[in-house]
Recover the amino acids of this structure.
């Protein structure tokens, strides 16, 4: 199973892990590390994670988070050339800030998009019938993590 985790899943998981909270996001990251599913990542997603992590934590914390994603989760990288044309097709259906992530999810032929952003989930689900769109809690429940 291939899964695209939105920025908020990584940030919440990192914060919760630091506080010792076993949230749905933490369970998802632990399952990804244990190869229960494959994680897809893009340049845009990595940049979003870095930007938000710097705001929430620090530059060093953001860099450590990215390093952990690459070394522990070992995601599948999808280059923008794979989904550039899809962005044009869906630009009027998906909010601009989420468009690259959505298009990458389509191009990567993922099984599931996981996000805390309920509006993004709703719009992504409405725009296509290829992959499922779930909150972290729904994903944890469905996979029995």
């Amino acid at each position: 199973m291939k899964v695209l985790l939105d920025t908020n899943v990584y940030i919440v998981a990192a914060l919760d892990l630091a506080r010792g909270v076993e949230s749905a996001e933490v369970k998802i990251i632990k399952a990804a590390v244990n190869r229960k599913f494959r994680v897809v990542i893009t340049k845009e997603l990595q940049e979003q994670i870095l930007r938000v992590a710097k705001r929430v934590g620090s530059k060093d914390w953001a860099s450590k988070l990215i390093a952990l994603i690459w070394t522990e989760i070992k995601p599948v990288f999808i280059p923008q050339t794979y989904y550039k044309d899809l962005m044009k097709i869906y630009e009027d259906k998906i909010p601009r800030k989420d468009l690259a992530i959505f298009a990458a999810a389509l191009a990567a032929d993922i099984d599931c998009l996981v996000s805390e952003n309920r509006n993004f989930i709703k719009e992504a689900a409405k725009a296509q019938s290829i992959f499922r769109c779930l909150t972290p809690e729904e994903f944890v429940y469905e996979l029995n993590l």
